[in-house]
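Quick one:
INPUT:
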């Protein structure tokens, strides 16, 4: 661990807490969306020479692995101005091809476009669905997953117009409720999850759609509960999906599952919540620059107090190593990159 940053802020009328989405820009800066607040966006500056000397003492003071400074005092953290006077819920974060930041406003069912320099709003787009996550395709369009009504949306980030919104269904007419989204070149993937209404999925894990949102492929892990959370594509073009479960046994353990993107064939599974792996219940799957897959713990309960992040060999699905991310009740690494 290099550093741990404070994301709560209660200063000068700004009220925010709970980091929920993270995006990295071309310069390596991290943009963090907090899920409750009136100024939800924070920038973590990657290059310390570009950090801001807030107290004018000619020394850049920032958090590290042993000391976490308050957000207002950390000179590598930049807080956006207030978007409104009252707290709202925000789900969904992406950076478009012109470096603008897009925030999903869950309560008002819209995406807000933010200038990366001023960190102020320049536009918003109504999608009339509860936002959940977002990603930008190679043409610069913003795709959104709208979990609760089972729709996906596509937004032109240049004109700031909603191009379309549609519901995706399987061959039986069942609505496939999107959770996370990952775009790999021309391929658009959504994880599929339950919708928290009691009408649970537990059958499909992920889906692939074309540029018009037409269903191309469904992915599932036979013989297991299927709860699609985060997903990623490795350097060889295989799809990996975080599949969390609260059942700790060899048949129904949480896993990160690897698929052939074209056929839907399950290639192998990395079982991550067996006792030997310290009960990692994966809510985040991510590919690093070396091509390894990471699964990050997302269950914040006492039974899994030692939730590690595990590093997975992309060829064999074997666990390479694990890294502690903390003990119950913090951190609760539920959310998405």
């Amino acid at each position: 661990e290099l550093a741990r940053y404070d994301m709560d802020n209660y200063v000068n009328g700004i009220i925010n807490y709970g980091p929920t989405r993270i995006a990295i820009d071309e310069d390596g800066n991290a943009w963090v969306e907090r899920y409750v607040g009136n100024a939800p966006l924070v920038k973590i500056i990657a290059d310390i020479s570009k950090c801001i000397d807030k107290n004018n003492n000619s020394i850049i003071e920032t958090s590290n692995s042993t000391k976490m400074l308050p957000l207002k005092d950390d000179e590598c953290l930049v807080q956006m101005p207030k978007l409104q006077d009252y707290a709202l819920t925000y789900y969904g974060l992406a950076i478009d091809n012109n470096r603008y930041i897009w925030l999903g406003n869950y309560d008002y069912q819209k995406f807000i476009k933010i200038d990366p320099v001023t960190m102020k709003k320049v536009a918003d787009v109504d999608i009339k669905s509860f936002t959940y996550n977002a990603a930008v395709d190679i043409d610069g369009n913003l795709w959104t997953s709208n979990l609760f009504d089972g729709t996906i949306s596509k937004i032109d980030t240049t004109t700031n117009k909603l191009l379309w919104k549609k519901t995706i269904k399987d061959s039986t007419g069942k609505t496939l409720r999107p959770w996370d989204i990952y775009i790999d070149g021309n391929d658009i993937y959504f994880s599929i999850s339950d919708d928290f209404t009691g009408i649970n999925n537990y059958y499909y894990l992920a889906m692939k759609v074309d540029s018009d949102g037409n269903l191309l492929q469904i992915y599932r892990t036979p013989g297991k509960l299927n709860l699609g959370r985060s997903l990623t594509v490795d350097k060889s073009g295989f799809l990996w999906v975080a599949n969390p479960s609260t059942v700790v046994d060899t048949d129904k353990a949480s896993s990160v599952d690897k698929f052939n993107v074209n056929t839907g064939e399950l290639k192998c599974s990395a079982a991550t919540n067996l006792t030997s792996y310290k009960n990692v219940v994966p809510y985040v799957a991510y590919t690093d620059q070396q091509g390894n897959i990471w699964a990050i713990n997302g269950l914040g309960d006492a039974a899994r107090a030692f939730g590690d992040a595990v590093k997975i060999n992309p060829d064999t699905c074997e666990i390479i190593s694990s890294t502690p991310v903390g003990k119950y009740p913090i951190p609760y690494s539920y959310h998405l990159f």
